[in-house]
Amino acid sequence: MSGVLSDLTIRIGDVERVLPTVRTGNLGRVPLVEFIGDPEFTNAAAQAMLPLLPAGTEILLTVVTNALPLTHELSDRSGLPYVCARKKRRTYMQQPLIQDVPSLSLGVAETLWLDGPHAARLRGKRVAIVQDVVASGGTAQALAKFVVQAGGTVSGYLAAFRQGQPPMDVAVLQDLPRRVP
Amino acid sequence: MSGVLSDLTIRIGDVERVLPTVRTGNLGRVPLVEFIGDPEFTNAAAQAMLPLLPAGTEILLTVVTNALPLTHELSDRSGLPYVCARKKRRTYMQQPLIQDVPSLSLGVAETLWLDGPHAARLRGKRVAIVQDVVASGGTAQALAKFVVQAGGTVSGYLAAFRQGQPPMDVAVLQDLPRRVP
Question: Are A72 and B73 within 8 A, CB to CB?
Answer without folding.
Answer: yes
